[in-house]
Amino acid sequence: MLFILCLVMVAETNVVDHQSLPASEVPFFVKGSKIEDMDETLSIKSPVFGQVHVTESDSAELSSSQMDVKSLEEVPEQCIESAILQFSPSIRSGSFADIGPRRNMEDEHIRIDNLSSHLGSVFKFPNPSAFYGVFDGHGGPEAAAYIRKHALRFFFEEINFPRTCEVDDVFSEGVENSLRKSFLLADLALADDCTVNSSSGTTALTALIFGRLLMVANAGDCRAVLCRKGEAIDMSEDHRPTYPSEQRRVEELGGFIADGYLNGVLSVSRALGDWDMKFPKGSSSPLIAEPEFRQMVLTEDDEFLIIGCDGIWDVMTSQNAVSLVRRGFQWHDDPEQCAKDLVMEALRRNSFDNLTVIVICFSSPENREQPAPQQRRFKGCSLSPEALCSLRSLLELNANQ
Ligand SMILES: *[C@@H]1O[C@H](CO)[C@@H](O)[C@H](O)[C@H]1NC(C)=O
Ligand SMILES: *[C@@H]1O[C@H](CO)[C@@H](O)[C@H](O)[C@H]1NC(C)=O
Ligand SMILES: CC(=O)N[C@H]1CO[C@H](CO)[C@@H](O)[C@@H]1O
To answer: Residues of the signal sequence (predicted)?
Structure first.
Protein backbone atom coordinates (compact mmCIF):
# COMPACT_ATOMS: atom_id res chain seq x y z
CA MET A 1 0.00 0.00 0.00
CA LEU A 2 2.79 2.39 0.89
CA PHE A 3 4.44 1.58 -2.34
CA ILE A 4 1.38 2.51 -4.31
CA LEU A 5 0.97 5.77 -2.47
CA CYS A 6 4.51 6.69 -3.32
CA LEU A 7 3.83 5.98 -6.95
CA VAL A 8 0.99 8.42 -6.82
CA MET A 9 3.35 11.06 -5.54
CA VAL A 10 5.57 10.37 -8.50
CA ALA A 11 2.59 10.65 -10.78
CA GLU A 12 1.93 14.06 -9.37
CA THR A 13 5.48 15.09 -9.84
CA ASN A 14 5.70 13.89 -13.37
CA VAL A 15 2.34 14.60 -14.73
CA VAL A 16 0.70 17.28 -12.72
CA ASP A 17 3.25 19.44 -11.02
CA HIS A 18 5.72 20.62 -13.56
CA GLN A 19 7.06 23.22 -11.21
CA SER A 20 9.23 20.84 -9.32
CA LEU A 21 12.05 19.55 -11.39
CA PRO A 22 14.41 17.64 -9.08
CA ALA A 23 17.64 19.38 -8.26
CA SER A 24 19.61 16.42 -9.54
CA GLU A 25 18.32 16.93 -13.04
CA VAL A 26 18.96 20.62 -13.27
CA PRO A 27 22.28 21.26 -14.95
CA PHE A 28 22.35 24.49 -12.98
CA PHE A 29 24.90 23.62 -10.34
CA VAL A 30 27.26 21.80 -12.56
CA LYS A 31 28.00 24.98 -14.40
CA GLY A 32 29.92 26.94 -11.80
CA SER A 33 33.53 25.91 -11.67
CA LYS A 34 33.80 26.84 -8.02
CA ILE A 35 32.06 23.84 -6.54
CA GLU A 36 35.21 21.95 -5.68
CA ASP A 37 37.31 24.96 -4.80
CA MET A 38 37.57 26.72 -1.53
CA ASP A 39 36.31 30.05 -2.69
CA GLU A 40 37.95 33.01 -1.07
CA THR A 41 34.70 34.89 -1.01
CA LEU A 42 32.90 32.17 0.84
CA SER A 43 32.17 33.18 4.35
CA ILE A 44 29.36 31.94 6.44
CA LYS A 45 28.69 35.12 8.29
CA SER A 46 25.00 35.12 8.82
CA PRO A 47 23.13 32.04 9.93
CA VAL A 48 21.67 31.10 6.56
CA PHE A 49 21.43 27.69 8.05
CA GLY A 50 18.16 25.85 7.95
CA GLN A 51 16.51 28.42 5.74
CA VAL A 52 18.15 28.17 2.43
CA HIS A 53 17.95 24.77 0.99
CA VAL A 54 18.90 24.49 -2.55
CA THR A 55 15.63 22.92 -3.51
CA GLU A 56 13.77 25.95 -2.31
CA SER A 57 15.81 28.49 -4.17
CA ASP A 58 15.50 26.14 -7.09
CA SER A 59 11.78 26.15 -7.22
CA ALA A 60 11.65 29.91 -6.75
CA GLU A 61 13.92 30.14 -9.75
CA LEU A 62 11.88 27.67 -11.69
CA SER A 63 8.48 29.15 -11.11
CA SER A 64 9.61 32.48 -12.44
CA SER A 65 11.02 31.03 -15.61
CA GLN A 66 9.80 28.56 -18.13
CA MET A 67 10.13 24.95 -17.40
CA ASP A 68 12.73 23.84 -19.82
CA VAL A 69 16.37 23.23 -19.44
CA LYS A 70 17.26 25.95 -21.88
CA SER A 71 15.80 28.69 -19.79
CA LEU A 72 17.75 27.42 -16.81
CA GLU A 73 20.99 27.76 -18.62
CA GLU A 74 20.19 31.39 -19.10
CA VAL A 75 20.02 32.10 -15.40
CA PRO A 76 22.60 34.83 -14.91
CA GLU A 77 25.95 33.62 -13.64
CA GLN A 78 25.58 35.65 -10.46
CA CYS A 79 22.45 33.81 -9.38
CA ILE A 80 24.12 30.48 -9.93
CA GLU A 81 27.09 31.51 -7.85
CA SER A 82 24.97 32.80 -5.04
CA ALA A 83 22.87 29.63 -5.03
CA ILE A 84 26.04 27.59 -4.66
CA LEU A 85 27.42 29.82 -1.97
CA GLN A 86 24.17 29.76 -0.08
CA PHE A 87 24.27 26.00 0.22
CA SER A 88 24.80 25.15 3.82
CA PRO A 89 24.52 21.60 5.10
CA SER A 90 21.83 20.99 7.65
CA ILE A 91 23.24 18.52 10.10
CA ARG A 92 21.57 15.58 11.83
CA SER A 93 23.31 12.48 13.09
CA GLY A 94 22.75 9.15 14.75
CA SER A 95 24.97 6.41 16.06
CA PHE A 96 24.80 2.82 17.13
CA ALA A 97 27.28 0.56 18.86
CA ASP A 98 27.14 -3.16 19.33
CA ILE A 99 29.45 -5.27 21.33
CA GLY A 100 29.58 -7.98 18.68
CA PRO A 101 30.33 -11.56 19.60
CA ARG A 102 33.26 -10.56 21.84
CA ARG A 103 32.89 -9.96 25.52
CA ASN A 104 34.10 -6.41 26.10
CA MET A 105 33.26 -3.28 24.23
CA GLU A 106 36.39 -1.34 23.34
CA ASP A 107 34.96 1.16 20.86
CA GLU A 108 34.15 4.66 21.96
CA HIS A 109 32.63 7.48 20.01
CA ILE A 110 31.75 11.14 20.29
CA ARG A 111 29.07 13.03 18.41
CA ILE A 112 28.46 16.79 18.56
CA ASP A 113 26.09 18.22 15.96
CA ASN A 114 26.50 21.82 17.10
CA LEU A 115 29.95 22.75 18.35
CA SER A 116 28.93 26.37 18.80
CA SER A 117 26.32 25.53 21.39
CA HIS A 118 28.71 23.04 22.99
CA LEU A 119 31.80 25.22 23.27
CA GLY A 120 30.40 28.51 22.07
CA SER A 121 31.19 30.64 25.08
CA VAL A 122 34.92 30.18 24.49
CA PHE A 123 35.10 29.57 20.76
CA LYS A 124 33.81 31.29 17.71
CA PHE A 125 32.90 28.79 15.04
CA PRO A 126 31.39 29.01 11.57
CA ASN A 127 27.81 27.81 11.26
CA PRO A 128 27.12 24.94 11.09
CA SER A 129 29.96 23.38 13.06
CA ALA A 130 30.08 19.74 14.11
CA PHE A 131 32.56 17.25 15.52
CA TYR A 132 32.58 13.44 15.43
CA GLY A 133 35.09 10.85 16.51
CA VAL A 134 35.36 7.08 16.63
CA PHE A 135 38.05 5.47 18.78
CA ASP A 136 38.50 1.75 18.38
CA GLY A 137 40.47 0.28 21.24
CA HIS A 138 42.74 -2.73 21.54
CA GLY A 139 44.73 -4.27 24.36
CA GLY A 140 42.12 -3.25 26.90
CA PRO A 141 39.50 -0.51 26.86
CA GLU A 142 41.47 2.16 28.77
CA ALA A 143 43.11 4.02 25.91
CA ALA A 144 39.92 4.50 23.88
CA ALA A 145 37.92 5.46 26.96
CA TYR A 146 40.58 7.95 28.02
CA ILE A 147 40.66 9.66 24.60
CA ARG A 148 36.90 9.86 24.46
CA LYS A 149 36.70 11.34 27.92
CA HIS A 150 39.28 14.02 27.22
CA ALA A 151 38.51 14.60 23.54
CA LEU A 152 37.30 18.18 23.85
CA ARG A 153 40.36 19.10 25.86
CA PHE A 154 42.75 17.53 23.33
CA PHE A 155 40.94 18.67 20.22
CA PHE A 156 39.89 22.19 21.16
CA GLU A 157 41.01 23.48 24.52
CA GLU A 158 44.67 22.62 24.84
CA ILE A 159 45.69 23.59 21.37
CA ASN A 160 45.38 26.84 19.56
CA PHE A 161 42.27 25.92 17.61
CA PRO A 162 41.49 28.58 14.98
CA ARG A 163 38.74 30.92 16.14
CA THR A 164 36.86 32.50 13.31
CA CYS A 165 33.56 32.51 11.46
CA GLU A 166 35.13 32.57 8.04
CA VAL A 167 35.78 29.32 6.22
CA ASP A 168 38.69 29.86 3.85
CA ASP A 169 42.03 28.27 2.95
CA VAL A 170 43.80 29.81 5.90
CA PHE A 171 41.16 28.40 8.23
CA SER A 172 41.28 24.89 6.77
CA GLU A 173 45.06 24.85 7.03
CA GLY A 174 44.78 26.01 10.63
CA VAL A 175 42.29 23.26 11.41
CA GLU A 176 44.57 20.66 9.87
CA ASN A 177 47.56 21.84 11.90
CA SER A 178 45.67 21.86 15.13
CA LEU A 179 44.20 18.41 14.48
CA ARG A 180 47.69 17.06 13.91
CA LYS A 181 48.80 18.56 17.21
CA SER A 182 45.77 17.08 18.97
CA PHE A 183 46.52 13.55 17.81
CA LEU A 184 50.13 13.80 18.99
CA LEU A 185 49.14 15.46 22.25
CA ALA A 186 46.58 12.75 22.97
CA ASP A 187 49.16 10.08 22.19
CA LEU A 188 51.66 11.59 24.64
CA ALA A 189 48.98 11.97 27.28
CA LEU A 190 48.38 8.21 27.10
CA ALA A 191 52.06 7.62 27.80
CA ASP A 192 51.94 9.83 30.88
CA ASP A 193 48.68 8.67 32.38
CA CYS A 194 49.25 5.94 34.90
CA THR A 195 45.66 4.66 34.67
CA VAL A 196 46.26 3.57 31.08
CA ASN A 197 48.09 0.30 30.62
CA SER A 198 51.01 0.75 28.21
CA SER A 199 49.80 -2.20 26.17
CA SER A 200 46.48 -0.46 25.55
CA GLY A 201 45.95 1.62 22.42
CA THR A 202 43.27 3.00 20.16
CA THR A 203 42.74 4.06 16.59
CA ALA A 204 41.21 7.49 16.06
CA LEU A 205 39.13 8.96 13.28
CA THR A 206 37.64 12.44 13.58
CA ALA A 207 35.39 14.39 11.25
CA LEU A 208 34.85 18.13 11.53
CA ILE A 209 32.27 20.10 9.60
CA PHE A 210 32.55 23.88 9.37
CA GLY A 211 30.15 25.53 6.99
CA ARG A 212 30.61 23.48 3.83
CA LEU A 213 34.07 22.23 4.78
CA LEU A 214 34.35 18.58 5.77
CA MET A 215 37.72 17.60 7.23
CA VAL A 216 38.54 14.02 8.18
CA ALA A 217 41.65 13.08 10.15
CA ASN A 218 42.52 9.44 10.61
CA ALA A 219 45.09 7.26 12.35
CA GLY A 220 44.17 3.58 12.17
CA ASP A 221 41.63 1.42 10.41
CA CYS A 222 38.32 3.14 11.06
CA ARG A 223 36.90 4.55 7.85
CA ALA A 224 34.80 7.55 6.81
CA VAL A 225 32.75 7.32 3.61
CA LEU A 226 30.84 10.13 1.94
CA CYS A 227 27.72 9.49 -0.13
CA ARG A 228 27.62 11.80 -3.15
CA LYS A 229 24.46 11.18 -5.18
CA GLY A 230 24.53 7.53 -4.12
CA GLU A 231 28.19 7.00 -4.88
CA ALA A 232 30.66 6.09 -2.11
CA ILE A 233 33.71 8.33 -1.75
CA ASP A 234 36.29 7.20 0.79
CA MET A 235 37.33 10.05 3.06
CA SER A 236 40.11 8.10 4.77
CA GLU A 237 42.68 5.41 4.11
CA ASP A 238 42.80 2.29 6.31
CA HIS A 239 46.16 2.14 8.04
CA ARG A 240 46.95 -1.53 7.88
CA PRO A 241 50.53 -2.79 7.94
CA THR A 242 49.85 -4.76 4.77
CA TYR A 243 48.92 -1.71 2.67
CA PRO A 244 51.87 -0.87 0.38
CA SER A 245 52.41 2.74 1.49
CA GLU A 246 52.17 1.83 5.16
CA GLN A 247 54.35 -1.25 4.71
CA ARG A 248 57.07 0.92 3.14
CA ARG A 249 56.87 3.41 6.00
CA VAL A 250 56.98 0.67 8.63
CA GLU A 251 60.01 -0.98 7.09
CA GLU A 252 61.87 2.32 6.75
CA LEU A 253 61.42 2.80 10.48
CA GLY A 254 62.83 -0.62 11.26
CA GLY A 255 59.55 -2.42 11.87
CA PHE A 256 58.52 -5.72 10.33
CA ILE A 257 55.28 -7.33 9.29
CA ALA A 258 54.48 -10.91 10.16
CA ASP A 259 51.22 -12.52 9.08
CA GLY A 260 49.85 -9.06 8.39
CA TYR A 261 50.64 -7.81 11.89
CA LEU A 262 52.96 -4.92 12.71
CA ASN A 263 55.97 -6.39 14.54
CA GLY A 264 53.90 -9.55 14.67
CA VAL A 265 51.42 -8.13 17.21
CA LEU A 266 49.27 -5.26 15.94
CA SER A 267 46.80 -5.23 13.05
CA VAL A 268 47.04 -1.45 12.54
CA SER A 269 50.05 0.62 11.56
CA ARG A 270 48.90 3.86 13.22
CA ALA A 271 47.35 4.27 16.66
CA LEU A 272 47.33 6.38 19.79
CA GLY A 273 48.81 4.74 22.87
CA ASP A 274 50.45 1.30 22.67
CA TRP A 275 53.44 2.76 24.42
CA ASP A 276 54.88 -0.72 24.85
CA MET A 277 55.73 -0.44 21.18
CA LYS A 278 56.73 3.22 21.16
CA PHE A 279 58.95 3.74 24.20
CA PRO A 280 61.15 5.57 24.80
CA LYS A 281 59.38 8.84 24.02
CA GLY A 282 60.88 10.57 21.04
CA SER A 283 62.30 7.42 19.49
CA SER A 284 61.07 6.61 16.01
CA SER A 285 58.65 3.75 16.25
CA PRO A 286 57.02 2.25 13.14
CA LEU A 287 53.71 2.68 14.98
CA ILE A 288 52.77 6.36 14.72
CA ALA A 289 49.92 8.58 15.89
CA GLU A 290 50.30 11.03 13.00
CA PRO A 291 46.92 11.33 11.21
CA GLU A 292 46.23 11.54 7.49
CA PHE A 293 43.78 14.18 6.25
CA ARG A 294 41.14 14.41 3.59
CA GLN A 295 38.91 17.37 3.04
CA MET A 296 35.94 18.15 0.86
CA VAL A 297 33.77 21.15 0.17
CA LEU A 298 30.24 19.85 0.55
CA THR A 299 27.67 20.55 -2.13
CA GLU A 300 23.98 19.71 -2.34
CA ASP A 301 24.98 16.42 -3.99
CA ASP A 302 26.48 15.24 -0.72
CA GLU A 303 23.88 13.27 1.18
CA PHE A 304 25.56 11.79 4.24
CA LEU A 305 28.80 10.61 5.84
CA ILE A 306 29.30 7.22 7.46
CA ILE A 307 32.03 6.67 10.05
CA GLY A 308 32.57 3.07 11.06
CA CYS A 309 35.15 1.02 12.87
CA ASP A 310 36.91 -1.79 11.06
CA GLY A 311 34.34 -4.41 12.11
CA ILE A 312 31.99 -2.90 9.52
CA TRP A 313 34.55 -2.73 6.72
CA ASP A 314 35.73 -6.29 7.32
CA VAL A 315 32.45 -7.55 5.91
CA MET A 316 31.24 -4.69 3.68
CA THR A 317 32.59 -2.44 0.97
CA SER A 318 32.17 1.31 1.24
CA GLN A 319 29.60 1.15 -1.55
CA ASN A 320 27.63 -1.64 0.20
CA ALA A 321 27.34 0.54 3.28
CA VAL A 322 26.40 3.69 1.37
CA SER A 323 23.68 1.88 -0.58
CA LEU A 324 22.25 0.35 2.57
CA VAL A 325 22.18 3.65 4.48
CA ARG A 326 20.72 5.47 1.49
CA ARG A 327 17.84 3.02 1.29
CA GLY A 328 17.32 3.54 5.01
CA PHE A 329 17.11 7.31 4.61
CA GLN A 330 14.58 6.97 1.82
CA TRP A 331 12.52 4.64 3.92
CA HIS A 332 12.55 6.18 7.42
CA ASP A 333 14.85 9.25 7.24
CA ASP A 334 16.32 8.48 10.66
CA PRO A 335 20.14 8.61 10.98
CA GLU A 336 20.07 6.64 14.23
CA GLN A 337 18.11 3.84 12.60
CA CYS A 338 20.48 3.95 9.59
CA ALA A 339 23.45 3.42 11.93
CA LYS A 340 21.65 0.53 13.58
CA ASP A 341 20.71 -1.01 10.22
CA LEU A 342 24.36 -0.94 9.21
CA VAL A 343 25.54 -2.60 12.41
CA MET A 344 22.83 -5.25 12.11
CA GLU A 345 23.82 -5.99 8.54
CA ALA A 346 27.48 -6.38 9.58
CA LEU A 347 26.39 -8.82 12.31
CA ARG A 348 24.28 -10.70 9.80
CA ARG A 349 27.40 -10.99 7.64
CA ASN A 350 29.20 -12.48 10.65
CA SER A 351 31.43 -9.60 11.53
CA PHE A 352 33.61 -10.81 14.31
CA ASP A 353 34.29 -7.50 15.98
CA ASN A 354 32.79 -4.86 18.19
CA LEU A 355 30.90 -2.49 15.93
CA THR A 356 30.40 1.26 16.05
CA VAL A 357 28.81 3.45 13.40
CA ILE A 358 27.98 7.16 13.17
CA VAL A 359 25.79 8.41 10.34
CA ILE A 360 25.72 12.15 9.63
CA CYS A 361 23.10 13.46 7.27
CA PHE A 362 23.46 16.79 5.44
CA SER A 363 19.86 17.60 4.65
CA SER A 364 17.04 18.63 6.92
CA PRO A 365 14.01 16.39 7.28
CA GLU A 366 11.65 18.76 5.49
CA ASN A 367 13.67 18.28 2.29
CA ARG A 368 12.24 14.86 2.22
CA GLU A 369 8.67 16.05 1.94
CA GLN A 370 9.58 17.67 -1.32
CA PRO A 371 9.17 15.60 -4.41
CA ALA A 372 12.76 15.50 -5.59
CA PRO A 373 14.05 12.61 -3.45
CA GLN A 374 10.90 10.62 -4.06
CA GLN A 375 11.37 10.93 -7.74
CA ARG A 376 15.00 9.97 -7.51
CA ARG A 377 13.95 6.93 -5.62
CA PHE A 378 11.69 5.64 -8.31
CA LYS A 379 13.84 6.67 -11.21
CA GLY A 380 14.34 3.05 -12.17
CA CYS A 381 10.61 2.45 -12.25
CA SER A 382 9.32 2.90 -15.75
CA LEU A 383 5.56 3.27 -15.64
CA SER A 384 4.29 5.43 -18.46
CA PRO A 385 2.48 8.66 -17.58
CA GLU A 386 -0.72 7.00 -18.84
CA ALA A 387 -0.27 4.06 -16.54
CA LEU A 388 0.38 6.36 -13.61
CA CYS A 389 -2.71 8.40 -14.41
CA SER A 390 -4.95 5.39 -14.53
CA LEU A 391 -3.43 4.12 -11.31
CA ARG A 392 -4.25 7.46 -9.73
CA SER A 393 -7.84 7.51 -10.88
CA LEU A 394 -8.22 3.95 -9.73
CA LEU A 395 -7.01 4.92 -6.28
CA GLU A 396 -9.19 8.02 -6.19
CA LEU A 397 -12.14 5.87 -7.14
CA ASN A 398 -11.32 3.52 -4.27
CA ALA A 399 -10.93 6.39 -1.86
CA ASN A 400 -14.32 7.79 -2.77
CA GLN A 401 -16.16 4.55 -2.29
C1 LIG B 1 24.17 26.16 17.24
O2 LIG B 1 24.18 26.80 18.47
C3 LIG B 1 24.34 28.20 18.38
C4 LIG B 1 24.52 28.73 19.79
O5 LIG B 1 23.62 28.12 20.67
C6 LIG B 1 23.15 28.81 17.64
O7 LIG B 1 23.30 30.19 17.54
C8 LIG B 1 23.10 28.18 16.26
O9 LIG B 1 21.98 28.65 15.56
C10 LIG B 1 23.06 26.67 16.37
N11 LIG B 1 23.19 26.13 15.04
C12 LIG B 1 22.35 25.25 14.58
C13 LIG B 1 22.67 24.76 13.24
O14 LIG B 1 21.38 24.86 15.18
C1 LIG C 1 48.66 -4.36 31.41
O2 LIG C 1 48.14 -5.29 30.50
C3 LIG C 1 48.89 -6.50 30.46
C4 LIG C 1 48.34 -7.33 29.33
O5 LIG C 1 46.98 -7.18 29.18
C6 LIG C 1 48.81 -7.19 31.82
O7 LIG C 1 49.53 -8.39 31.81
C8 LIG C 1 49.34 -6.26 32.87
O9 LIG C 1 49.18 -6.82 34.15
C10 LIG C 1 48.65 -4.90 32.82
N11 LIG C 1 49.32 -3.98 33.72
C12 LIG C 1 48.67 -3.19 34.56
C13 LIG C 1 49.51 -2.28 35.37
O14 LIG C 1 47.44 -3.20 34.68
C1 LIG D 1 36.65 -6.70 23.03
C2 LIG D 1 36.82 -6.52 21.60
O3 LIG D 1 36.23 -7.18 20.80
N4 LIG D 1 37.63 -5.58 21.25
C5 LIG D 1 37.97 -5.33 19.90
C6 LIG D 1 37.24 -4.13 19.35
O7 LIG D 1 37.76 -3.82 18.08
C8 LIG D 1 39.15 -3.61 18.03
C9 LIG D 1 39.51 -3.21 16.65
O10 LIG D 1 39.30 -4.21 15.73
C11 LIG D 1 39.90 -4.82 18.47
O12 LIG D 1 41.28 -4.58 18.43
C13 LIG D 1 39.48 -5.15 19.86
O14 LIG D 1 40.13 -6.28 20.30
So the answer is: 1-18
pLDDT in the model for residue 120: 73
Distance 129 CA to ligand 1 centre (A): 9
Q: CA–CA separation, 274 vs 175, rounded Å?
A: 26
Residue 397 has pLDDT above 50, yes or no: yes
The response to whether residue 108 sits with its C-beta less than 6 Å from ligand 3 reads no
Res 356 pLDDT > 80? yes
pLDDT of 113 above 90: yes
Between 66-75, 78-87, 187-196, the lowest mean confidence (pLDDT) is in 66-75
From the CB of residue 386, how many other CB atoms can be counted at a distance below 10 Å? 9
Ligand (nearest to CA of 138): 3
Beta strand residue intervals within 68-200, DSSP E: 92-98, 107-112, 129-138
Whole-angstrom Cα distance, residue 387 to residue 364? 33
Q: Check pLDDT > 70 for residue 79.
A: no
Cis before 373? omega within 30: no
Mean local confidence (pLDDT), 153-163: 90
Taking the centre of ligand 2 as the mean of its atom positions, its distance from the CA of residue 277, in whole angstroms, is: 14
> Considering the domain 92-368 in this protein, what is its CATH number?
3.60.40.10
Mean pLDDT, the chain, integer = 77
Whole-structure pTM value: 0.72
Give the residue, by CA position, lying nearest to ligand 1 atom 3: 117
Pocket test for ligand 1, best of 46, 113, 114, 123 (most atoms within 8 A of CB): 114
> End-to-end alpha-carbon separation of the chain, Å?
17
Query: Which atom of ligand 2 is closest in space to residue 140's alpha carbon?
Result: 5
CATH 3.60.40.10 in the chain: give the residue spans.
92-368
* Cα–Cα distance, 222 to 268 (Å, whole number): 10
**Residue 49: CB within 6 Å of ligand 1?**
yes
Atom of ligand 3 nearest to the CA of 311: 10
Judged on CB neighbours under 10 Å (0-12, 13-18, 19+), 265 is: middle
